[in-house]
Amino acid sequence: MGGLMPNKKQKIKKKKNSRSVSGEELNDPFGGIALSCGVVLRNRKIMTLAMRDELGNIELVSAKLKRSARKNRFLYYPLIRGIAFFVEALVINLLALFYKRRFIKKNLKTKTIYHRFFVRLRQYVLYIVYLALAVAIFNYLSANLQGYPIVTWDMGLYNWAVTFGYLILFALIFILIATLTREEADWLFYHGVEHKIIRALEKKGKISIDSLRKESLLDDRCSLIAWVWTMIFVSGAVSFLHLSGAPFGVVMIVLLGIIIFAFALAYELVWWSLKYRGIFYTIFIWPFTIVERIFIREPDEAHFKIGLAALGEIQKLNKRWR
Description:
With 322 residues, the protein is α+β, with helices and mostly antiparallel strands. It has one domain. Helix content is 60%, strand content 11%. Strands 1, 2, 4, 5, 6 and 7 form a six-stranded antiparallel beta sheet that branches. The longest helix has 33 residues. The two termini are 17 Å apart.
């Protein structure tokens, strides 16, 4: 966790041959983020964002991660590690979105003024829609917190189910908006690239496009499962906890705390279920793998090349930034 130090950008021209990368030297735990124009791969030391323009050129942006967890071991304690992961993931996502926006802005300079106008108009409309969706979610949850106390257990359970249903509905609306065009829907394919590369790394050996095609598309460690459980916990919290008459600022602070703590609980639930498997895995993990099928697609060769470019860059920087 902590600050990020951006490295200078590097550009790679499109290659006709498939690249292969060795996974034997990358022993650190790996993670990733899917974007509409590329993929982010990271280990404990390095984050690399690989993006592709319309001509097939690949641009790489790398950052060195400063993890305070190396010095503060308490950040690995139960619940605290979930909060630390939440904060770190938020920082990395914001940094990735910043680089993505800069990348798109640079590519727009080569377009006509009319093309730039319509692309920017579409972006601003999407920003407004996403903001409206986020406001709707927070308004609904805050309204639950400010409601009258629920005096019966049955009403609480009913409200819990209804609230969770609304959160699922908001998530489905987000998916619909984020997949309106092929360009926007590409993040579903890059999500598959992220999963396949991480699974291939755990097997060591050479990683190529051919080997990645054989890897499973789904991964039970996907953070989407933790986010589903977060929605379940948040729904329960706002259904049984009420702050009638509390100022709006207090309600929003409490709601933010509920979301962070709910994610920490979800992180622990997934962590322990994956560790002990058995009945815990069957109940708490397996049913929610269906969420991955909604948010993921089988990548093609062009998507794999982006992932391999990011992986190769991390391998190179892993030796330089020891």
